[in-house]
Amino acid sequence: MSLLKVENLKQHFPVRGGVLMRAVASCKAVDGVSFELGTGETLGLVGESGCGKTTLGKAIVRLLKPTDGNIIFDGADITHEGIRALRPMRRHVQMIFQDPAESLNPRHTVGDILEEPFIVQKIGTRDERKKWVAELLEKVGLSADSVDRFPFEFSGGQRQRIGIARAIALKPKLIVCDEPVSALDVSVQSQVLNLLLDLQREMGLSYLFIAHGLSVVKHMSDRVAVMYLGKIVELAPAEELYHNPRHAYTKALLDAIPVPDPARRRERRLLQGDVPSPINPPPGCAFGHRMKHPNWEQSVGMDLTLKEISPGHWVQPCPCCMV
Amino acid sequence: MSDAASILEVKDLVTAFDTDAGRMTAVDGVSFDVPRGKTLGIVGESGCGKSVTAFSITRLLPQPHGKILGGSIRFEGRDLVTLPHDEMRKLRGNDISMIFQEPMTALNPVQTVGKQLAEAILLHTECSKTEVLAKCVEMMKKVRIPAPEQRLQEYPHQLSGGMRQRVMIAMALINTPKLLIADEPTTALDVTVQAQILELIKDLQSDLGMSVILITHDLGVIAEVCDEVAVMYAGRIVERASVFELFANPRHAYTRGLLESIPRLDSKPKALLKAIAGNVPSIADFKPGCRFADRSGKEHSADQLNQRAAFVEVSANHWVENCPICVA
User: Fold this and answer.
1) How far, rounded to the nearest angstrom, does the alpha carbon of residue B161 sit from its chain's CA centroid?
2) Strands B22-35, B6-19: parallel, antiparallel or unpaired by DSSP?
3) Contact between A258 and B195 using a beta-carbon 8 Å cutoff
4) Which residues, 6+ apart, have CB-to-CB distance to A277 below 8 Å?
5) pLDDT digits (tens, 9 = 90+) for A232-270
6) CB B196 to CB A272 under 8 A?
């Protein structure tokens, strides 16, 4: 049985306007997403900014109230649970944020930050908690004297280690990593990626790994889902997706990555235009619409749920973009 | 030694900031040339001095704290370090122009795109209104902005990120500069838009025959567009070579470390990456000798820590800061 099962998840936000600030439109940030995630597995989630990947992550840890669909975690439906009912589940689902400078309270010491999860969950005595904090620091490679220091005294990479320590404090089963290395320096990124890989092996963690850097996602993930305008357009094992992309958008994304090897410069087919707004998205296949594909009209009104075209390889079956 | 093959020659540039904690030397003796019609990439991490180098060339250092303390910046035979302010103003935006990282903060939010473009022209040439408009429209077409007449009437907030960066490029190129300095021009953009913008800069460069300095932290971007590369670390250039030579044959431990630490599409999934230990040093902790010593994982002698190694040409046009421990 899978650890996390997301079925047809929708997260819409009202767009308010007019004198009475009534909802005049809705922003369909996540619009019908389904996938499963197993224990110890990493699912990568890629897409351009505004495609809804962060919103999806936030909905799964239930920082948002989903509009529709189901989130089943560890056998329990947590889609519509209230704050109190969610508390036991929060122990097992944690999040690592993009910018560690903004996700750590600047007025708390590192010790306070790392002790808080235990206090919230009412676990352990004061002495036990102190001991656990020391263990956490060691686990993420920070010195023991960090306990009494404040976040600003650390570099970006070290701050992200604090964020990771906080996320693993309660020995969770699932961690949603939202762009965990994109704010870090290049030479520090690989340290943090290695730490995440080590922790996964050691603790049997599952990751939902959200990023826009495709090479990073490929490196970290077992399977990768590609999102475009609130929908998953392709989902496949990492190697398969990179060697045999079947959706035109996945191909375009792969084509756009700069390859760090000047001997392999190539003529690239460039994607034109920008990501359209998720407010009033076009009907049918949104990417076919952007590409002005001649077959796009056929996709309007079609059932565009993902189809399994080879074992584990799912693609949105639109007549314009599937290749 | 005025070398006609180079449009810009920077020699032993030292730039420092006066702060409450004392004088901080952000750029510490940096030398490089920009070959005419080519692209020089400057790659490095935050705080390595790559942007300060660019601001030194355009003399846009924050005043009164930022100062060029030594060295020379020769642009077509003239030394920009000693050039009077009004001469520099004539050059800036005309012969040398710059694109910044975040187009939203670099554009004026309360003026239309057209007004800002026109200003760039009128500062340097006398034109009639119709000529200015025609020039603006032509430039907007060159950077591939659809419906240029309409876009000229709009404000920056009405444009997408990629579109704003195109406007920045249009503004920088409207007086056909000889040298363009692009400071992280694509860092704030998505990969697909990044590819469009890089392609655009490449195309315009060959059309207009200008030279480009491209500053970035992304080795992928360097590999795609640059002819020459300078790797900066902690205020110094540690290695400089042609792009093919640098990627095929990196000599400095830092360059090697960087190249090995980036995940690649063809690497083994979920395998541990080779990481550079430690953190990027802060400017207050810069040492006189080898600055990569504490991250190299190798013992350095006291001499190597206290005395800067010479910048030597190890093979044709391949220069390296020759610390005997870090260079292999």
Assistant:
1) 20
2) antiparallel
3) yes
4) A27, A50
5) 999 999 999 999 999 999 999 888 888 888 888 877 777
6) yes
- Kindly state the tokens that stand for A1: 């049985």
- The ipTM estimated for the assembled molecules is 0.83
- Check whether A21 has a pLDDT greater than 50: yes
Neighbours of B160 (CB within 10 A): 16
Task: Name the closest residue on chain A to residue B228, using Cα atoms.
Answer: A262
Q: Could you read off the pLDDT of A162-196 as tens digits, one per residue?
A: 999 999 999 999 999 999 998 888 888 999 999 99
Q: Which of B262, B282, B291, B294 to mutate to test the interface with A (most CBs of A within 10 A)?
A: B262
A239 to B258: CB separation less than 8 angstroms, yes or no: no
Rounded to whole angstroms, the Cα distance separating A93 from A103 reads: 17
Neighboring chain A residues of B247 at a CB cutoff of 8 Å: 260-263
pLDDT tens figures, A189-228: 999 999 999 999 999 999 999 988 788 999 999 999 999 9
- Judging contacts by C-beta atoms under 8 Å, the chain B residues touching residue A187 are 45, 257-258, 261, 275-276, 280, 295
Is A157 within 8 Å of B261 when comparing Cβ atoms? no
Contact B195 A270 (CB under 8 A): yes
| pLDDT for the residue B3 | 52
Of A214, A268, A274, the CB nearest to B193: A274
What is the dihedral sign for C-alpha B197, B198, B199, B203?
A: positive
Structure tokens at B52: 């300060």
Kindly tell me the burial class for residue B257, based on how many C-beta atoms sit within 10 Å of its own C-beta (0-12, 13-18, 19 or more): buried
**Residue A247: DSSP 8-state:** B
Average pLDDT over residues B249-253: 96
Residue A275 near residue A48, CB atoms below 8 Å: yes
Selected residue with higher pLDDT from A125 and A182: A125
CA A131/CA A115 separation, integer angstroms:
10
Tokens 């550079």 identify what position? B276
Q: Which residues on adjacent β-strands are paired with residue B28?
A: B14
Q: Which residues contact A33 (CB under 8 A, 6 or more apart)?
A: A6, A8, A9, A10, A52, A56, A69, A227, A230, A231, A232
List phi, psi (to 5°) of B213: -110, 120
* Nearest C-alpha neighbor of B281 from the set B235, B223, B216: B235
- What average pLDDT does the structure give for chain A? 91
Do β-strands A22-37 and A4-17 pair in parallel, antiparallel, or remain unpaired? Answer: antiparallel
Query: What is the DSSP secondary structure assignment for residue B156, as one 8-state letter?
Result: G
Token pair listed for A117: 């999860």
Average pLDDT for residues B192-206, to the nearest whole number? 88
Report percent pLDDT > 70 for chain B. 99
- Distances from the Cα of A161 to the Cαs of A256, B255, B274, in angstroms? 30, 25, 18
* Composition of chain B by helix, strand, coil, percent to 5: 35, 25, 40
Contact of A279 with A50, CB cutoff 8 Å: no
Token representation of residue A295: 């077959």
C-beta atoms of B223 and A185 within 8 A:
no
In the DSSP assignment, the letter for residue A60 is H
Q: pLDDT per residue over A98-114, tens digit each?
A: 888 889 999 999 999 99
